[in-house]
User: Fold this.
Amino acid sequence: MAGKTLMSVHELSFAYGRRTILHEISLNLRGGRLRGLLGPNGSGKTTLFKCCLGFLKVARGQIELEGRSIAEYSPRELAARVAYVPQEHRPAFPYTVREMVEMGRTPHRGAIPALSKADHRAVDQALARLNLTALANENYNHLSGGQRQLVLVARALAQEAALLFLDEPTSSLDFSNQLIVWEAVQSIAREGLGAIICCHDPNHILWFCDEAAAIKDGRILAEGPAREIITRGLLEELYDRPIQTADLNGRSFIYPLTSPREANDA
Ligand code: ADP
Assistant:
């Protein structure tokens, strides 16, 4: 079920210096909804995320979080409501899984270094939610790529943000781990959080996302229910190459036409 609008982006334009990267982007991100963001490299997805997360200052257009312009939020207030899940990475320091998840509590903590009862509770719940409790004392860097990515999702949950921004969280994972992370994110969104996930595989967006948005050259080409907008026509426009769709057992699939003959026959 779609919840209320958490973030609304209205006619957002953004330039690095004189070069305009985003052109009048409008999007609504709602609770209980997983939205996929698809677009070629360099189309402006990361820039859009950075604007929504308050990392970049927006000069034209508006971004509102829960009815208030993000420009009015302090960085700490914003971090308590929106969370960023990066591509998996390995910190130089050998943090445990629990320590990694505890970092999500930073926006909620005062000057006292010790974690409060509420902090511990949020960390425990986030670990349990992603089936990581048994790994809590393991060295984060020794986990598999898929487990590390789940830890980063758990860190975002411990943050107790309303809206998650996930930047290609499955790009370096094997087939099975990709599905595990997608299933976890999908079920978290079903519990009421809003989430937007940047992803290069249109099949994953079709299979797991409620909604999608496609961006090219800094412009939204299409947005709406994932199954309605991820079409052959849209993908060919996005990627300038012949693509075909098929349905099997109630699922839609996207695949490339790899030879000129296949493309002619399509
Ligand atoms: P995507 O995430 O879709 O690959 P980006 O938002 O990273 O796209 O980049 C969009 C465009 O903005 C690209 O042409 C990129 O070169 C440019 N760009 C990204 N970061 C900067 C920056 N800090 N300064 C100038 N140009 C940038």
Summary: The first strand starts at residue 5 and ends at 16. The chain has two domains: 5-230, 234-266.
